Amino acid sequence: MSDLFRRKSIAQLVSESEDGSHTLKKTLTSFNLVTLGIGAIIGAGLFSITGLAAANHAGPAVTLSFVIAALGCAFAGLCYAEFASMIPVAGSAYTYSYATLGEFMAWIIGWDLVLEYAVGAATVSISWSRYLGKLLEYYHIYLPTSLSMGPWESITTPEGAVVHGMINLPAVFIVVAMSLLLIKGTQESSTVNNVIVVLKVSVVLIFIALGWGYINTANYTPYIPANTGTFGEYGWSGIIRASAIIFFAYIGFDAVSTAAQEAKDPKKGMPIGILVSLGICTVLYILFSHVMTGLAHYTEFQGQDGIAPVAVAIKHTPYVWLQQALIIAILGGYSSVILVMLMGQSRVFFSMSKDGLLPKVFSDVHPKFQTPYKSNLLFMVFVSLFAAFVPARVVGEMTAIGTLLAFILVCAGIIVMRKKMPDAPRAFRTPWVPVIPILGIATCLFMMVFLPADTWIRLIVWMAIGIALYFGYSQKRSKLNKK
Question: What is 2-473's CATH superfamily?
Answer without folding.
Answer: Amino acid/polyamine transporter I (1.20.1740.10)
